[in-house]
């Protein structure tokens, strides 16, 4: 079984479980957001399964083998993201959700963005991070009406 089929089936089962859990309660208005994302997951997982069945499995396996990285290179590429994620978790208790999310987003954009890194590029990453946090603020405060984890600053 190809990787696309396995990932599609796992995503379909997971989104089905989310839909089942969100549709069982009496008050469905509370679960609109999870239902929305689970519906999107169903569509994309079905598209992935369709693509996996419509392509030749041998060609798919050859493409995957050609595009895989050795484990040491994959770890080197993913280790900075893991470090940013751990820093985000530890900083959230003190800095709050929004400031730590801004630092994490800007840090990931700087780590995985194009090289060389210049002062203007850092400003662009900071501005993009601020826009990302503004969208999160609007989403949590107005659309979902939930409070994010608070810290000392925010």
UniProtKB/TrEMBL annotation:
Keyword Transmembrane: yes
Organism superkingdom: Bacteria
Residue intervals passing through the bilayer: 31-53, 122-145
Keyword annotations from UniProtKB, A to Z: Membrane, Transmembrane, Transmembrane helix
InterPro entries: DUF1468
Residue span, DUF1468 domain: 7-147
Pfam family, one: TctB
Record-given protein name: DUF1468 domain-containing protein
